[in-house]
Every structure is written in C-alpha cells, then in structure tokens.
C-alpha cells in the first residue's frame, strides 16, 4: 500500500493552484508561406527547474530563416517566428540550473532539445539525434508539444543544456551569427581536419561562406573563394581568402580542375554541383552545407574519376558549438555584419536572395518595441 502522503501545506497548495507563469513576448512571425513577416505576440513557457530565461539582444538572419518562413523545405509549422542565432543576457533561472546565473551572456543556436539518450546525443552530436531533436523554431517541445518559436523576439526560455556561454571579449552583435553560420562551417572543416597543406575552395560568399573563409584561413589552409559575384573579390581577400575565381567564367574554373583537396559548398539556390566536383583532386571531398530546396543531380563518373566524395554536414552539436565559440573568443573571430532594425526584415530577405548581404544581417532587438 502506498504510504500516506503528508497533507499539503497552505503554501504548497497555493503554489499548486497558481496559474502557469507564461510570459507574453513580442516577436515577428510569418503566418503563411507567402506572407511578409509582421509583429506578433507569443508566449514563452514558465520556467522549468533547468530552464534559463534570457533577454534576446541580437539575432542573426540565416538563409534558413527565409527557406523556413516561405516553407521551401515543406517542414514549416505556422505561425513561424524564425531566428536561430541569438545572443542575450540571462534574466531568470530555474532552481536546478547549475551553469548560468542572472546577468550572464548566453547564446542559443538551432537546437533547443534532443532525446539525450541515443548514441549520437551521448557523443554530443545532438544535431544527429536519432530520435529527433527539437529545432529552435517550428519544432515541437518534447514535454508539452508546444510549437517552438525562434529569436526574432524579445526573450526566450531554453533548457540550460542547450544554452551556450558567450565571451564578453567580442562584439556581441557580431557573435550572434556564430551560433549557426559559424558552427555549420567550423564543424565539417574540423571533421575533415582541414588545415595546413590543404587547398580549400569555398563556394558562395554569404553568411556561411564568409565564416568558412575565416575558419579555413585560421586553420592554415590555402583558401580560394568560388563566387558568382565579381564585386566580392576584395572582401574575400580581406576576410582571409588567398585566391578568388568567378564561377560564371568557364576559363577561370578550367584552370582549377583537380586543384582542391576540399570544397565547402554554401550555396542556397539550385546550382550545378558537378561544376565544382571536377575541381577536386584525387580523394578530394566536397562538403555540402548549403541547402537548396531542390534535389541535386550528381554525375557519378565525376566521383569515380578520382575517388572523390560528396558529403553533407548539419550545424553542430552542443559541445562543438561551445568549442567553436571559445576558439573564436581566443582568436578574435566574429562575423562581418550589417545591423538592421526588425522592421527591415522583409527587405533583408529580398537582399539575401540577390546575394546582397555583407555578410550577415543581424537584428538589433532594441528595435522590437
Ligand atoms: P546567404 O548568406 O544568402 O549566402 C548564400 C550565397 O550563395 C550567396 O551570397 C551567393 O554567394 C551564393 N549563391 C546564391 N545563389 C546562388 C546561385 N544561384 N548559384 C551560385 N551561388 C549562389 O545564405 P547563408 O545563410 O550563408 O546559407 C546558405 C545555405 O546554407 C542556405 O541554403 C541555408 O539554408 C543553408 N544552411 C545550412 C545549414 C546546415 O546545417 N547545413 C546551416 C545553416 C544554413 P556569391 O555571391 O559569392 O556567389
Ligand atoms: Zn542557420
Ligand atoms: Zn538523441
């Protein structure tokens, strides 16, 4: 027979009856694939024991936000509040939180939860959770099934295991894009141990591409930017690239046939992968991180001739994201940003589609009033 439980005290009865303290938060959302982003109110959950609540100060604008807002990957749950590159300051913590305290600088990237028990989660590869991780937005909370909302908002509540420590040594707004663009390029470059003695080609100079150039150069590789935009050559070199080639000029590509040990493809739109595979040397690897909505056509003969590989890579796990942030703090690496007010977000999306971003839009959340 179960032991008789003690009668609840007056105080605990009151706590049990108290309404859940959800907080209403201002945000920007898309209501449908063809709607512009517009002001919207959301609720953040009441603090669970291991939750961290923080005021979002800056949020980067990733091309994935655009793919998702417009349902280009057919996975969006509306209304969608995009944003998975957020940095902010802790305003409250649950009573079992160990790693953070009020006032700390924190960051949250693309993930807010995972099963924590599968082999990948145990290895710190939460991005490849075999049960299914919870995305920062358009995901479903594992406890109550609520839809998750992202960083185009004033505050957020996230389990401490998915919150990153942010150094106060770097300009905070320029750190925000590291939470996605940074880790998504750092992770494959580390996995394939790209460094000294390697020739690395970076396809596309946008948010991801410019971080790939910075990391590639920082790891000691010879970096060549492969771009459709002639106007980006000087910037590419300033960011750390040693060489530049215009991919719309067949003569420039011909000279690079068989040249690269590694290529990292960050292109957001439909394009010809074979054009780049041909530039790999024997045993060369093309790492695909760009995620165009349409499937790629790959000529197998191009892979066979030179035992080349084509591979994918998705964001990064929590331990590696912290490692990347610490590496950036140590080496003074941040994103090159254009700060915007939140009411400019629809124009920012249009400019991103025209490859006109140098090199990451970051929303100043003070503008969300
Ligand atoms: P972005 O800032 O818009 O940059 C994309 C760049 O690709 C453009 O600046 C442009 O560079 C190049 N480009 C665009 N259209 C092109 C075309 N038709 N042909 C050739 N090049 C083209 O985008 P982003 O935020 O870096 O994201 C890039 C892609 O990565 C998106 O699809 C995004 O969803 C995906 N992503 C994937 C992961 C992951 O986990 N794997 C994480 C984050 C983002 P140039 O002007 O230099 O040609
Ligand atoms: Zn992203
Ligand atoms: Zn898992």
Please describe the structure with a list of short key phrases separated by commas or semicolons.
369 residues; globular; alpha/beta; disordered N terminus; binds zinc ion; 12 helices; 24% helix; 7-stranded mixed beta sheet; binds NADP nicotinamide-adenine-dinucleotide phosphate
Structure notes:
- The chain is of the alpha/beta class and 369 residues long.
- It has helices spanning 10-17, 63-69, 119-122, 172-175, 181-191, 207-218, 233-239, 250-254, 274-277, 300-304, 318-331, 345-353, and strands spanning 23-29, 38-44, 51-60, 86-93, 105-108, 111-113, 134-135, 155-159, 164-165, 199-203, 222-227, 243-246, 260-265, 280-288, 309-312, 337-340, 360-364.
- The longest helix is centred in the last third of the chain and has 14 residues, at 318-331.
- Mean pLDDT is 94; it is low at 1-19.
- One zinc ion is lined by residues 62, 64, 84, 110, 180.
- One zinc ion binds at residues 114-115, 117-118, 120-121, 129-131.
Concise overview:
By secondary structure, the chain is α/β, with parallel strands linked by helices.
Set down the secondary structure blueprint.
Elements: H1 10-17, E1 23-29, E2 38-44, E3 51-60, H2 63-69, E4 86-93, E5 105-108, E6 111-113, H3 119-122, E7 134-135, E8 155-159, E9 164-165, H4 172-175, H5 181-191, E10 199-203, H6 207-218, E11 222-227, H7 233-239, E12 243-246, H8 250-254, E13 260-265, H9 274-277, E14 280-288, H10 300-304, E15 309-312, H11 318-331, E16 337-340, H12 345-353, E17 360-364
The structure holds NADP nicotinamide-adenine-dinucleotide phosphate and zinc ion (ZN) (2 copies).
Residues 62-64, 67, 180-181, 184, 204-209, 227-229, 232, 266-269, 271, 289-292, 313-315, 352, 355, 357 line the site of NADP nicotinamide-adenine-dinucleotide phosphate.
